[in-house]
């Protein structure tokens, strides 16, 4: 049952604001599993035999050969011919199974050693949950403490010294040929192919982490192949490892290999960041994102949040996005790019070929976007240090390739998100802003957004544009329209301004539906770092007050079977539906929602035993004395709120119906 309760903040001295209290605690609960839907697999295939063919061709008698008794134990169990290569046979290696050797003693010894290695790997993985220690101002060791023994950090490897065994070669190939594009999208995959793979040939830490991602992905693919169901993909509500792993916590030997490689990478990196100043920002970004990717694939959201926060602390004042702008900003919006550009030039001086300009925005963008999901706290670390000064660097049609265009857009989009999040925080805290400065920054961003629209249209008119590049540009158009709407309404504390953008919301939804009808290759792992469609759909549900449009967005969120960074459609739609219910309770006969009935979702906690989301909402209009008004909902995670019945709506709200007629 979905329960509703309202609370009003007491005057100061009686009751602390839940928002402030939540900020003090900065806690996050692990996310819960989706209810699973398993396709029937109990149908036996029917075989037909042509009787006339059998009569015309008499059955041949199989040649008799003496039984080979010298093969390995695994091949005997599998009842296949063993090639008897030692110490392990090639047949087992080719089949990707463990070869138990040629005698029972070998098998017993190997199983015993295997169990011991699994136990050690599981213990080390459990002990390494806090992967990146927080850097402290006093250096690697607190005063009065000494390290008795310091294990030397392995030096970077030269390409000629890179050595991989046969199984690791498979993980490496899986990463570079498939995972790069699946996990980081078509645009960022170019940078990751060029930068990360090059780094892996020189740095053992990157190499081990890369192999860990390859191994854990291989473990997941084998499990999904055995179940043959799309719904087994990982989700913020149902981590794949939680459901499919046995009691020991390990799925198969690929999972074990992933843990071993991961523990090695963590051990090396821990030693490096004991002195944060000696670790390059490039290394921090690459390693943090690789560690985050490993945890994301497993559904370990607490670890993702911790890793992202610590990575951002290590980047403070070390990249252009975390360099604070000067106190006296120039009056002319066009000249506002000069201070930050000079900072970026200073930071990258002497290392223009290290690829930093292509990847430096990825971790800050991930940290900020996670904050909009209501389940992460890493944005609290990132926000104070971020530089949101608008900077324009446009691609040149006919010269700049689409992959580089996506990098330019990612840098601009990240700064726009900083502006949006700061406006949202001020709105939730009823904090007064410098309206002159805020209006100038808003106008500058909107001017740059219009310029981006013109450039994208020129690119899309190119008839020689490849399909993947065209889809990438259409997705950028979706995000461009999204930030145009949100930034345009950023100075309105009541959200009434959004009503004037109903046509834009309709255009945004239509673009999303068109894109979803031909999305191109979808990640086989149910997760991608790339910004996708969950963000604009969730914004339509929360900010568009047209019932039909927001319910169509709810329908689309429910159909998304993959997760985009920290965004999970099936998780968000539960909390966002609470906003719809609270607002439409106050809807008048004409479908208008007054300012006193507009709400925003602030936070949520999952109750696994009750299978509920305990969500907290804030009314955008405070009481007459300025105190905030909160509502608390207990939402059933298995049954979505029926918000249509409150307004007498009986529509299906399926945006794909018009294409099926």
TrEMBL record:
Limits of the Zn(2)-C6 fungal-type domain: 71-99
Q: Where is this region: Disordered?
A: 1-65, 323-345
The GO molecular function terms of this record are: DNA binding; DNA-binding transcription factor activity, RNA polymerase II-specific; zinc ion binding
Keyword annotations of the record: DNA-binding, Metal-binding, Nucleus, Transcription, Transcription regulation, Zinc
Q: Where is the composition biased (Polar residues)?
A: 1-10, 38-53, 332-345
Stretch forming the signal peptide: none
Q: Is the keyword Iron assigned to this protein?
A: no
Q: Which SMART domains match?
A: GAL4 (SM00066)
Which Pfam families did the record assign? Fungal_trans_2 (PF11951), Zn_clus (PF00172)
The UniProt entry, under InterPro entries, shows:
Fun_TF, Transcr_Regulatory_Proteins, Zn2-C6_fun-type_DNA-bd_sf, Zn2Cys6_DnaBD
Q: Which PROSITE patterns match?
A: ZN2_CY6_FUNGAL_1, ZN2_CY6_FUNGAL_2
Q: Does the keyword Secreted apply?
A: no
Question: What PANTHER family has UniProt attached to this entry?
Answer: ASPERCRYPTIN BIOSYNTHESIS CLUSTER-SPECIFIC TRANSCRIPTION REGULATOR ATNN-RELATED, HYPOTHETICAL CONSERVED PROTEIN (EUROFUNG)-RELATED
Q: What is this protein called?
A: Zn(2)-C6 fungal-type domain-containing protein
- Organism of origin is Colletotrichum nymphaeae SA-01
